[in-house]
Amino acid sequence: MAFIPVAEKSIGSGGYKDGKFISFLKKYQDAETIFDHWKDKYEEAYEYTMPSRESFYEETIGERRTDKIFDETAVVGIQEFASRLQAGIVPTYGRWANFEAGTDIPEEQKPQVNEALDEITKYVFEILAGSNFNQEVHEAFMDCAIGTGVMLVEEGDALNPIKFTAVPLPKVMLNNGPDNRVDTIFRKRQIPYNQLMTAYPKAEMSETMLKAIEENESKKANIVEGVYKIYDEANTEKFKYCVACMNEEEIIFEKQLSGVGSNPYIVFRWNKGSGEVYGRGPIFNSMAAIKTTNLTVELILQNAQMNISGIYTYEDDGVVNPDNINLVPGALIPVAPNSRGLTPLAGAGKFDVAQLILSDMRQNIKKALYMESLGRPEGTPMSATEVSERMADLSRQIGSSFGRLQSEFVTPLLRRVIRILSKQGRIEIPKIDNREVTVISQSPLAQAQHQQDVAVVNNFKAILGQTFGPQVLNMIVKQDEVARYLAEKLGLPEKLIRDPEEQQQIIQELQNMQQQSNMAQDELGIPSQQPQGQQ
Fold this sequence. Notes:
By secondary structure, this protein is α+β, with helices and mostly antiparallel strands. The protein has helices spanning 19-49, 73-89, 110-130, 133-146, 196-199, 207-215, 282-285, 287-309, 351-368, 384-397, 399-423, 444-468, 470-476, 479-489, 500-524; strands spanning 4-6, 97-101, 148-155, 162-166, 172-176, 182-192, 204-206, 220-229, 238-245, 250-258, 265-269, 311-313, 343-345, 437-441.
C-alpha cells in the first residue's frame, strides 16, 4: 500500500508550507501551554508512586528512577486503588452495564426492545472479554489515580474487532471547549519513517514528505495526532481528526468524524477544579503525606545505620590516626596511655516518635486511596452480604467521582464500542422512530446504590404488612409493578420477565383451574372455597 502524492502547498507565513498545519500548530501550542503548567506536578506524583512509568521529560532508556522511593505504601496503594476501581466499575469478565430502551420509546414497546437489547448487551460484553480491555483499563485507572486517564478505542481486525490503548499521560495534551468540557486531544508519538505507511495507510503525502521518508528510513518521525470538536452545527457531534509530522511541518492525514461515539479518545478525570482541564486524583491530593512518609523512612534508615555501625569520638592527641582504624571483628586499635580511645556517641534520633509520625502518614495515604475502608478481610471468605456492604461503603465514599466516571468514561466508552460494532455489521441497534437506547450501569458500585432503593421498598412493604395486614398491603401496593421495579433495580434480564399478555394468560389459566376445582367440589357436595374477603 503506497502513499498518494499531493501537490506542494505554499499557504501561510513563517516558513510553513501548509496553512492547515499553521491552524493545527496553533491549537497544539495552546494545549501545550496548559500542559506545561501541570507536568511538574504530575512528574512529582509519578516519581513517588509509579517510578517505572514513562517520564514527562526526556530520559534515557532504562534510567533508574527509584531514588526517591523509601516507602512503598503509595506505590502499592495506587495498584490496589486501580484494581478496586476496576472491580467496582468495570469488573473483569462481568456485565457491568445494560442497554435499555430510552424514555422516549413508548411503554408498550419497551419489553420487546429490551429483550432484543439484552442479546446485544451479551454480545458486546463477550467482545470486551475477548479483547485487551481489562489489561488496558487498569493502566488508565492508574493514571486516573493521579488525575486524568485517557483511553484510545480503535477499530480492530476480524479476530479482535476492537483495540484498546491506555495512552500515557505524558503523551497527551488536552484543552477545554466553550462548554468547559475536554474537546481537544493531542497525542505525541514517535514512529520510524519506514513505518508511517503501515500506521497511516490512507495518508496523503507531498513530494517533500516522500523524499524525507526515503532519506530518513530508519529514523523516527515526531508525529502528533489531534482530535478537536467542530461547533458548526448544533446538537451534532462532529470532530476533526488530523495527523501531523512535526519534523516536516506537514499534515499527512485528516478526516471528519460525525455522530455519537465517533471520537476515538475517551478522557476521564477523578476530580477537577472549576475551569481546569486536567484532573486531580487521590494521589495528587495526598502528595504531602506521601513525601513526608518517604522522608521519614529515609531519616529512620539513616538513624538506623548510625545506631548499627555507630559514631565514635577520639582524643586528637596526635597519636591516633583515624585513617588507619578499621572497625572489624578482632581488630586491635592502638591507644595512647591515659587516653580514652574511641568513645561511642549516642544517637540523637528517637525511633518511637518517627514511628508515630510514619503510622499517621501511612494511614492518611491509605485513607486517600480508599484502602481497607472496612478493614482487611481476614479468616473465612467474605459472604455475599459482606461484599455488598463493602461495595456500598466504597460507593458512599466516592459518590461524586463515581458519577463523573460514569459520564466521562463508562457511557462514552460503550457508545464508542456500539458505533464500531455497528459499523462492522456485527450488531444492529433497534430504533423506534429514530429513538435509540440508554446505557444503564450495572457495575458493583452501581448495584450497591440500587440495593438501597430495594431496601426502601422492602422496608415499606414489611412495615405496611405488619401494621395493617396483607389485605391492606395488596390494596395499596401494585405487586406486579413492585416485582418489575425490583427486577429492574437488581439487573434481571428482560427475557426472564413475563410480558403483560403472558401474565394475563397465566391469570386466566389459574381462574379456569379454580372454576374447574369448584365445579368438581360441587358435584361431590363439598362446599367450594372462596377467596379471602368474599363472604
